[in-house]
Structure prediction request, 660 residues.
Amino acid sequence: MSVDGLVQLLIDQVTEVQAEQPGLELVLACTGEMIVRGDIRFSIDHNGRTYMASYQVEIVIPPDYPASPPAVKETGGAVPPDFHRFPKTGHLCLAAPVELVRVFAQNRTLRQYIDRLLIPYLFSYTYSCEHGELPHGELSHGLLGLLEYYQEFFAVGPITVMKLLKLLADNLAPQLMACPCDSGRKLQDCHGSKLDELRPLLPPEYFEQELREMISAMQAADIRLPERNVMPKRMLRNREKRRRKKAQRRRN
Amino acid sequence: MNEVRNRQQVSQILHDLAETLDVPPSKYEEAKEHYQAVGNWLGEEDSELALFNPQIYAQGSFALGTAVRPLGEDEYDVDAVCLLDLTTDQVTQKQLKDTVGRRLKHPGSRYKSKIVPAEGGRRCWTIQYADESQFHLDVLPCVLDDSRWFVGTGIPPAILEHAIRLTDQTTPEYATGWPQDANDPTRSNPKGYAVWFCDRMKVRLTEAKAALAMEKRASVDEIQDYQVRTPLQRAVQILKRHRDVRYNGDDDKPISIIITTLAAHAYNNEADLYEAIANIVSGMRTYIEPRNGVWWIANPVNPLENFADKWEAHPRKAELFFEWLDALEAEYQHIVTDAGFEKVGTYLAQSYGQRDAKAALIKYASRQVGQSGTLQGAPVIIVPKKSGSGSTSYTNVKVTQRSKPWSE
Prediction:
């Protein structure tokens, strides 16, 4: 998208959002970034109670918007640093990275981002202040949290998650293959559609990176893995090369 | 406060605004084609006017390069004078006007059904073009001013040689001849005025044409005046639109010829647009003189003509004008402060209209996005908060997406 188009798009999207969130404005920051900032107010009915809150936020628009979703900071000092935030940037962790992209991809607008991602997150925080826990639970930190996310998304166990992620990392879609979840069905009749939902959201390298980190974490914890079925093909190939070299050295 | 930096940015934004307000070169070409076609029709061999060698040229904002795109549904209003080789001894005003009218309404004329109203206006024949072109052309019949009233007025001959006499139905002599005052409503000098106006911005006009010639690898002679804009022309465009938005539909609003004249007087060939406008708005009032209890804004090419002649009978016109200058001065001082600059988007929308403000900001912001470091200090608000956002209304949201926050 041209820069002209981006600014035009943002003006339109901010104007649309202002129907519900009149306290937001679009600014061009001195960093050259486009930022949507101001007050977000909401009232949410949950289990027979109404929760009302307002937060100061700064939504940073990435240069490749709307291909990528924005990032967001809470600027009023209401959300403490230990509540689901990226430690380096201070940005709010609205959801697992894939989930963030998945929800935003359903409708690449600020309204979607605010209504489906930001407000639910802020509501979770508001709720937790009173009840000491989150209304819909939370993911563990780091890799474990990612694994939990995928387990829930695919409704399978951790090893099967990794088998499915391998198909994303290797960018394979063998529709007639037996589904890795051992349901006895073909991939196309089982988890194929779930994979197809995630595949276009992020590049294979992204899934490969996540998978590699999961594998090393599990290996570090001495968990045995069915390596051929979970390791991305590049990893397998490198391992093969190393083995051959080792064997060569031994022969010499 | 980052006033220096704010000034630079405001200049760029104003530049983008003026470009947005400007009439595109294609419209200038179109206008020229229109009035030249009229000139050709009037001068064709079988025309009763052929003998008098009709010459047609633009006057007013299209001749000065200060025209702005119409607000809303309005049309482009192009004025062209039609000069005939006749003298005031040979024709009366009525004869002159009717001769041109007859030719325009000739049975073989493509204009015959386009003259609105059919009986003509006070000074002109108006040709209404098809809706989609958004044009109407006022054709003002005239002859050269052969009287010697101007001897000793101090106006250079290069300007005086263009003086003309227009027709005016409201003069008592309309059917019988011409008024004899040195300052009567038939006297005019649009070409002379254009010469004066160009002279007021000569440095920047020459510079702009040279720059464009360089860019196009063309010779300066090939560059037409209408292809470039000086800060004076931009300033006049911005001031006119400010006037249009502020006094939309008010009969007493400041008139363009006064704005243009005072701005040209106050302009000192500033290269920077913000500086030009700031100096113009603070300097304009010094060219409004009180003469014997009457406000005078002299026509620079006819010192006997007072552009503010209506102010005496309609004092509200003067009041509005001074009030307008005060407002402009305050606005242009405030806009370069940090507080003012941050709200530049709101200011532009309020003072120059939503549509054009938005277009200008898109141009500006698109240039700045991703250019970190060029801006320092206050951010620029592109879309301001909605008014009344201070209220405590909370939007009821249905959470359809269950949040499960994560962290690294």
